[in-house]
Design a protein that fits this description.
The complex is a heterodimer of chains A (285) and B (786). With 285 residues, chain A is of the alpha+beta class. Chain A contains 11 helices and 14 strands. Chain B is of the alpha+beta class. Chain B contains 19 helices and 33 strands. Classes of the chains: A alpha+beta (285), B alpha+beta (786).
C-alpha cells in the first residue's frame, strides 16, 4: 500500500532545508520517475515528500564562458537533450540524456534525480564523471560542492544525508577541441536500462578520461587506467590494449537477471574499443 | 466464388470504432464506476508450492471500510475449461507463486490493499515441480488428485499418477521402419521459454450479485462472454441464464482473456457483500504473476530423409511446461499432434504432445495457440536437415510441402480450396531475393566488417483449435429508414471484427457502410450465441453467419415485395437498398418501406418486422482418434510464410532486421488495411518472442521479471526497417467471399525465420529462444574460442 505522506512544495531553498531539518523521514521529489514507482511497489516508505520543483535556484540551467554549465536539480532530461550548446561542448552528456528511459520519462525525469537515485547504471553518471562534474549540496549550514566521483557510495547509495538536498550540478567549461562519446548496451532498441555504459573523453591535450556504468556497485571513473594511458598516442594498438585492460576494472553482479557477468565483460571491451575509435575518427575529421 | 468486383470487400474502410478509441471516448471495464461499487484486492502466494497451515483474516476484517474477506474455505468451487482443476481461491495447498490465497472487497483500493497486508498466512513450504524433467519424473504430483479430476473425455487424456494433464498423439505409418530406410536421420532438441501476453489493458471484471437469487451480472474485459457464462454456471452450479456477461471495449486479449479468470472471484465477493458491485482490476504485476501465460516448451525432434530430400519419417516429443492448471494449455498441446509436423506431407509420423503440470503460473491460449512454439522446432529443423543434406532449404521445403492431393498427418486430403503454402513460400523468397545460403567465403568477407547479413525462410500453417461442434450466430434488424443494426456474439478485441462484419453485411445487402452498425457492447442477454472469440475464426465463421443473416433478411423482404408486385419472389432481385423486379426495375421497394411491414395507401399492411438470422456451425469436424490422431480437426487451414533479411553485430550480438516479408493465403481479403495491420502487429509480436521476451524463474519458482523493466517487449524502435505484407487469394469454397482467418498467423514462424537467417549470417544454429544480443554474442564468442 502507498504510504501516507505529507506533501510540501517550498518556494525557496531556505524553506526546503528547514523542512528537511524538521522532518527526518522526507523523500525528495523532482521528476518522480523513480520515487513514484518505489512508493507504488512499496520499496519506498516515507512520511513527507518535498517537491523541489518550485525552488528558483533549482530551475537554473545556465552556461557562462570559463565557468561552464550549471544544471539545477529540477532541470529535466529532455531540457538537457534539447540544449544545443551543451551538445556541442559536452556530447557525452547529451548522448546520455538521449538514452535515458523513454521520451515520456525524459519529460519528467531530471539529471540530478538520476544521479541521486544512484543506480549503478544511471545514464547521466558516466558522462558527468568524465567532465569532473561537481555536485552542489545544500543544507541549513549552507552549500558545499563535492566531486561527483566522491558522491556515489554503493548501489543506490550516496554521501547525502537526510538533511541535505542537491541544488544542481556544475560542469567545468571545456576548451575547443575537447571531445567525448557515450555508448551503452541494452536488451532492446527502445526504452531499456543499460547493461554496460561507457563515457570517454579526450581533451585538447589528448588526455583521456574514462567512466563506466552498470558494471559495478557504483558508476565509476577509471583514474588509474587513465594514468596508464597518459602520454600515449591514440593508436589502434592503444585501442586494443584499452579494450582488454578495462575489463580488469569491472565487477559485474553475478546474479543479475539483466545480464550475465560474461556478457558484461565482453561488452565493456567492445564499447571501450568502439568509443575510442569514434573519438580518434573525429580527430581525423 | 466468382471474381466479380466487390463494392466493399477487399477495400480498406477505417476501423469502425477508430475515432472513439483515438479520442479516448471508448469505455473499458477499467473506466467503469458503478453506484456503491467496492474494490477487490487479492493476497498472492509467495511460494510455488506450499501447504496452507492457517489463515488469520481477523485484522483485515476489523479494518473500517472492509466489506468482505474471502479465503479458500469460502469458495468451494472448481473451474476449468477442459480439466476441472482450479480453485477460485487456493485451499489447503498453493500450486504457484502468484496464486490467490485470499481476497478482500473494500470501499476503496487503499483500504483493500491495507486489508490484504493484514492477512496472516502460515505456510509450510513444499518441494515443487519446476522443470519438464521433474514433471515427467512425477516424484511430486502438482495435482495429487489427478486421477479423480473431471475432464473433457475423448479429447484430452490425463495420465494416471502423473503430471501429464493430457497426452495426445499421432501415429501414422511405420516411423521406426522409415528411420531405418532413411538416408539421413537428424535429431535435435529445441526450447522456448514461457511468454506473457502483455495486453495494453490488464484483466478487469466487475460483478454484481442479486442478493435474492442466483443471478449474477458481470462486466468483463473477457474475449468470450458465452464461455465465461457457461464455465461460471457449471462451477457455481447455477443456470447459464442466471448469468449476464457484458463486454464493453477490450484493450487487447491475444488469447489471455479467452477463458474465465477474475470473474468468479469478483462474483463471490459481491455475493459476500450482499450484492454490491465489486471491481477487480489486475495490476500489471498480477498480470504477470497471477494471470496465465504462454507455456514454455521443449521439442525433441527426429527427422528421416531420403538422399534426394524427401522426408519419410518424423518423430517429435512436444513437452509443455504448462504450469499449475490446465486451462487452455491442454488444447494448445493438442494442436501439436495435427499441425506440429508443419505444412508438409510426411508418410510416417509419430507425434507426442504432453501438457505437463508444473508449479508455475499456468498457461493459456496465446496468439498462435501452440503454433509459434511447434514451428520454432519444425522450421528450425527443416533448415538444419537441409544443411546436412547440402540442399537449399527453400528447395527442401518445396519438395515436401503440402498441396492439392496431398495428405496431412491427421489424414486430411488437401484440395485447391484449402489454399497454397507453396504460393506463400515462393512469394516471400522472391521478396527477399532468396538465392540460397551464403557460402562460407562470403560469410568470412562480411565478418571483417563486423556485421554479417543473413536471410532466412520459414513456412507456417494453422487451423482453428475448436470443438467439432463450434457454432456462432448473427442477427440483424432493419430500421424504417433502411439502416441496419447487426449483432454478433464474438467480441472485437481490436482485431477489427466489427469492421469486417460490417463490410460483409454491406456487400450482401448492397447498402452503404454508413447504413450498417455492428452493435457494440456485447451482452449475453441480447447478443446471439458465439462459442468464443479465439482461433482466428471470426471472419470465417462470423462472416458466414452474417452473410446468412443478410440473405435471410433479403429473402423475407422479397416475400413481402412479391405480394406487392403480384409476382413470384424468384423474379425479384436486390441492389442499392431496393428490392426490384428483374425485368421491370422501376417496380421497386426500398428496404425501409419493408422494414416493419409494407403499408398500402389505404392503411392495409402486410409482412412484419424484418429480422435476419444466420447461424454457422463447424461442419464435418471430428474428434481425433485417441491412439492415432487421425480425423478431421481443421475447419480451415491458413498457410503462410516469412522471409527475413537481417544483420548481426558480431561483437554485441545485436540483430537488426532489415526486412520481413510475410505472405498468407487469406483466400479473399476482406479489409486490406486491417489485414496488413494484423500482419505488422503479429510480426512485431513474433519478433518479441524471437529476440527479447521470456519469463525467468528462479529455482524455487519465483518469477524474476514480472514488470516491463525486465520483461522486454519490442517497441516502435524495434520494428524492422520494412515489413512487406503479401496477401495471396486462393479462395476457400466455403469461406465468406472465399476468406480465411489470419489474426494469429503473422506471429507464427517469425522466431524460426529469424533463427534460420542467423544461421545464414553466422553459420551457427540456435536451438533456444530468445535470440537476445547476449545469447547470440556469447554463442559467437564461444565458437571463436580456441
Amino acid at each position: 500500500m502507498l504510504s501516507k505522506f505529507d506533501y510540501y512544495k517550498p518556494a525557496s531553498l531556505e524553506d526546503a532545508t528547514k523542512y528537511l531539518n524538521e522532518n527526518p523521514e522526507t523523500k525528495i521529489l523532482a521528476g518522480g520517475t523513480d520515487l513514484l514507482i518505489g512508493l507504488k511497489n512499496k520499496k519506498v516508505r516515507c512520511k513527507h515528500i518535498l517537491d523541489i520543483k518550485g525552488i528558483p535556484e533549482l530551475n537554473k540551467f545556465t552556461y557562462s564562458e570559463g565557468r561552464g554549465y550549471f544544471i539545477g536539480a529540477a532541470v529535466t532530461i529532455n531540457q538537457i537533450s534539447e540544449e544545443k550548446l551543451l551538445r556541442e561542448k559536452y556530447p557525452a552528456i547529451s548522448q546520455g540524456a538521449d538514452a535515458l528511459g523513454s521520451y515520456q520519462v525524459r519529460n519528467r525525469a531530471t539529471m540530478v534525480g538520476n544521479i541521486c537515485t544512484a543506480s549503478p547504471g544511471a545514464d547521466m553518471a558516466a558522462p558527468l564523471l568524465v567532465y569532473d562534474a561537481k555536485v552542489h549540496i545544500a543544507s541549513s549550514q549552507g552549500i558545499k560542492a563535492v566531486d561527483l566521483c566522491d558522491f556515489f557510495t554503493g548501489v543506490k547509495k550516496t554521501i547525502l544525508n537526510p538533511k541535505e538536498l542537491v541544488v544542481g550540478v556544475s560542469i567545468p567549461d571545456v576548451e575547443k577541441g575537447d571531445r567525448s562519446v557515450y555508448l551503452r548496451k541494452s536488451r532492446i532498441k527502445g526504452a531499456d536500462l543499460c547493461n554496460v555504459a561507457i563515457a570517454l573523453r579526450i581533451n585538447p591535450e589528448n588526455k583521456l578520461s574514462i567512466a563506466l556504468g552498470a558494471v559495478s556497485t557504483i558508476p565509476m571513473r577509471l583514474f588509474e587506467l587513465e594514468k596508464e594511458t597518459a602520454g600515449k598516442d591514440l593508436t589502434p594498438e592503444l585501442v586494443d590494449w584499452l579494450a582488454t585492460q578495462i575489463k580488469t576494472y569491472i565487477n559485474p553482479r553475478r546474479d543479475s537477471i539483466r545480464s550475465s557477468p560474461e556478457y558484461r565483460y565482453l561488452i565493456t571491451g567492445v564499447l571501450a574499443k568502439r568509443g575510442l575509435l569514434k573519438l580518434i575518427d573525429k580527430e581525423g575529421a | 466464388m466468382d471474381k466479380r468486383e466487390y463494392k466493399y470487400i477487399g477495400k480498406s474502410p477505417d476501423r469502425s470504432e477508430g475515432l472513439e478509441k483515438v479520442t479516448g471516448r471508448a469505455v473499458y471495464v477499467h473506466d467503469m464506476e458503478l453506484p456503491g461499487m467496492l474494490y477487490a484486492k487479492a493476497l498472492h502466494s509467495p511460494f510455488a508450492r506450499a501447504k496452507i497451515i492457517s489463515i488469520d483474516t481477523s485484522a483485515a476484517r476489523a479494518l473500517p471500510g472492509v466489506k468482505a474477506v474471502l479465503t479458500g474455505e469460502d469458495a468451494p468451487y472448481l473451474v476449468g475449461l477442459y480439466m476441472i482443476d482450479k480453485r477460485i481461491i487456493a485451499k489447503d495447498i498453493v500450486r504457484y507463486q502468484g496464486e490467490v490465497v485470499a481476497a478482500v472487497a473494500a470501499t476503496d483500493e487503499r483500504i483493500a490493499e491495507e486489508a490484504v497486508s493484514l492477512i496472516k498466512v502460515e505456510y509450510e513450504i513444499l518441494p515443487s515441480v519446476q522443470t519438464i524433467d521433474e514433471a515427467l519424473e512425477a516424484k511430486i504430483l502438482v495435482h495429487e488428485d489427478i486421477n479423480d479430476l473431471e475432464y473433457m473425455k475423448g479429447v484430452f487424456f490425463p495420465q494416471k499418477d502423473s503430471n501429464i494433464a493430457s497426452w495426445n498423439k499421432t501415429v501414422r505409418g511405420d516411423v521406426e521402419k522409415a528411420f531405418e530406410e532413411s538416408y539421413l536421420v537428424v535429431e535435435n532438441e529445441m526450447y522456448l521459454p514461457a511468454a506473457a501476453h502483455t495486453p495494453l489493458e490488464t484483466h478487469a471484471a466487475i460483478a454484481q450479485a442479486d442478493p435474492y437469487s442466483d443471478k449474477l451480472k458481470i462486466w468483463s474485459s473477457a474475449q468470450s462472454p458465452f464461455a465465461v457464462r457457461q464455465l461460471m454456471a457449471k462451477s457455481f452450479g447455477i443456470a447459464e441464464a442466471d448469468i449476464q456477461v457484458i463486454i464493453p471495449y477490450v484493450g487487447g486479449g491475444f488469447g489471455g482473456k479467452a477463458g474465465i479468470h477474475l470473474e468468479p472471484l469478483a462474483a463471490l465477493l459481491s455475493r459476500a457483500c450482499k450484492g454490491r458491485p465489486v471491481k477487480y482490476a489486475a495490476t500489471r504485476e498480477e498480470e504477470f504473476n497471477q494471470l496465465p501465460t504462454r507455456a514454455a516448451m521443449r521439442g525433441r525432434i527426429k527427422t528421416g530423409v531420403t538422399k534426394d530430400g524427401k522426408i519419410i519419417a518424423l518423430k517429435v516429443y512436444y513437452d509443455w511446461d504448462s504450469g499449475a492448471y490446465a486451462d487452455y494449455g491442454v488444447n494448445v498441446g493438442r494442436t501439436a499432434i495435427y499441425s506440429g509436423a508443419g505444412a508438409y506431407e510426411i508418410p510416417n509420423v509419430e507425434i507426442h504432445s504432453r501438457t505437463l503440470y508444473t508449479n508455475k503460473v499456468f498457461s493459456t491460449a496465446y496468439r498462435g495457440f501452440g503454433h509459434l512454439e511447434t514451428h520454432w522446432v519444425i522450421e528450425r529443423q527443416m533448415d538444419i536437415v537441409a544443411q546436412k543434406l547440402g540442399m537449399d532449404p527453400y528447395e527442401f521445403r518445396m519438395k515436401n510441402i503440402l498441396g492439392p492431393g496431398k495428405t496431412t498427418v491427421s489424414g486430411e486430403v488437401i484440395t485447391e480450396s484449402t489454399g497454397s503454402p507453396s504460393d506463400c513460400l515462393k512469394a516471400v523468397a522472391e521478396e527477399i531475393n532468396w538465392t540460397g545460403y551464403q557460402r562460407e567465403e562470403e560469410r568470412e568477407i562480411q565478418k571483417k566488417r563486423g556485421k554479417v547479413r543473413g536471410k532466412g525462410l520459414a513456412l507456417l500453417h494453422k487451423a482453428p483449435a475448436m470443438p467439432a461442434f463450434t457454432s456462432t450466430a448473427s442477427i440483424m434488424q432493419i430500421d424504417g429508414d433502411g439502416k441496419v443494426k447487426v449483432m454478433i456474439g464474438a467480441i472485437d478485441i481490436g482485431q477489427g471484427a466489427n469492421t469486417v462484419i460490417r463490410q460483409m453485411a454491406a456487400e450482401v445487402l448492397d447498402i452503404p457502410l454508413e447504413n450498417i452498425e455492428v452493435v457494440w457492447e456485447s451482452d449475453t442477454q441480447k447478443n446471439p450465441y458465439d462459442w468464443q472469440t479465439v482461433a482466428s475464426k471470426l471472419t470465417f465463421m462470423g462472416g458466414n453467419a452474417v452473410i446468412k443473416a443478410a440473405e435471410d433478411m433479403i429473402r423475407q423482404m422479397k416475400e413481402v415485395a412479391a405480394q406487392v408486385f403480384r409476382c413470384d419472389a424468384s423474379k425479384l432481385t436486390h441492389g442499392d437498398g431496393y428490392i426490384y423486379h428483374v425485368h421491370h426495375p422501376h417496380k421497386r421497394l426500398s428496404y425501409g418501406s419493408l422494414a416493419r411491414g409494407y403499408s398500402y395507401e389505404n392503411g392495409n399492411a402486410i409482412g412484419g418486422v424484418i429480422i435476419g438470422r444466420g447461424t454457422y456451425i463447424a461442419d464435418g469436424l471430428t474428434n481425433l482418434d485417441k491412439d492415432t490422431g487421425q480425423g478431421l480437426p481443421a475447419l480451415v487451414w491458413t498457410y503462410g510464410a516469412h522471409g527475413v533479411d537481417l544483420e548481426v553485430d558480431l561483437e554485441t550480438g545485436d540483430v537488426h532486421i532489415l526486412k520481413v516479408a510475410s505472405a498468407f493465403d487469406v483466400g479473399r481479403v476482406i479489409n486490406k488495411k486491417l489485414t496488413e495491420g494484423q500482419i505488422m502487429g503479429g510480426v512485431l509480436q513474433g519478433i518479441g518472442s524471437a529476440l527479447s521476451e521470456g519469463l525467468k524463474f528462479n529455482a524455487e519458482g519465483k518469477l524474476l521479471n514480472p514488470t516491463f523493466t525486465d520483461y522486454k517487449i519490442p517497441t516502435a524502435k524495434d520494428m524492422p526497417d520494412e515489413i512487406v505484407p503479401i496477401l495471396i487469394e486462393n479462395p476457400q469454397a466455403d469461406g465468406p467471399f472465399g476468406a480465411r482467418g489470419v489474426g494469429e498467423h503473422p506471429m507464427i514462424s517469425i522466431p524460426s525465420a529469424i533463427g534460420n537467417a542467423l544461421y545464414d549470417a553466422l553459420g551457427i544454429n540456435f536451438y533456444k529462444l530468445p535470440l537476445n544480443p547476449e545469447n547470440i554474442a556469447l554463442e559467437i564468442a564461444g565458437t571463436q574460442a580456441p
